[in-house]
Amino acid sequence: MAAIESHADMTSRRDVLHLATGSMAALGSALALWPFVASLAPDASVVASGQPVEIDLSQIPVGQVVKVFWRGRLVFVRHRSDREISDARSVKLEDLIDPQADEARTKEGNAQWLVTFGNCTHLGCVPLGYQGPFNGWFCPCHGSVFDTSGRVRKGPAPTNLPIPPYAFLSPGQIRIG
């Protein structure tokens, strides 16, 4: 009878060894595959750059431009004065290189806020704010001039400063993206 018990003990030990070996093989395979699976995930900077950007507008006084980055691109948020708005709206569309009404470049009821990408549409330079004959933006690299609505008025830039996707979350806060 001792031989039978010995055989039973060996069988249970063998089962434990098989279970332990299988578990170690599964764990080893998972650890070996982990770097490969992790390499498929996007880089942290890519994840962060695609997130929407929220901006507190109450901190931006009239006449100031705030620069933020969204998806790696520069964005201007300009708090326009009543004078800047009326100047932009009084321009005849036929006088513009890329005709677009000021009302089409802002959100209804929020004309004081202009949100545009901050790169010249000629070669991607960063124009200077409150410069040039229209008190909008001036690109010192090649001479493009934009008005207070971000519309190209002179120079080699072919189109207006583009408008990124944005929405008002409240009267004092916007989300870009």
Task: Output the keywords.
177 residues; four-stranded antiparallel beta sheet; Rieske Iron-sulfur Protein
Commentary on this structure:
- The chain is of the alpha+beta class and 177 residues long.
- The protein folds into two domains: 1-41; 48-176, Rieske Iron-sulfur Protein.
- Helices cover 29% and strands 24% of the residues.
- It is built from three helices and ten strands.
- It has helices at 2-39, 44-49, 82-89; strands spanning 53-56, 65-70, 73-79, 113-117, 128-131, 136-138, 145-146, 152-154, 166-170, 173-176.
- The strands form three sheets. It has a four-stranded antiparallel beta sheet with strand order 5-6-7-8, with no helix packed on it.
- The longest helix is centred in the N-terminal third of the chain and has 38 residues, at 2-39.
- The N and C termini lie far apart (78 Å).
- The mean pLDDT is 86.
CATH class of the largest domain: Mainly Beta
Low-confidence stretches: none
Radius of gyration: 31 Å
Strand order of the largest sheet: 5-6-7-8
Strand pairing plus helix content: what structural class? alpha+beta
Which CATH architecture of the largest domain? 3-layer Sandwich
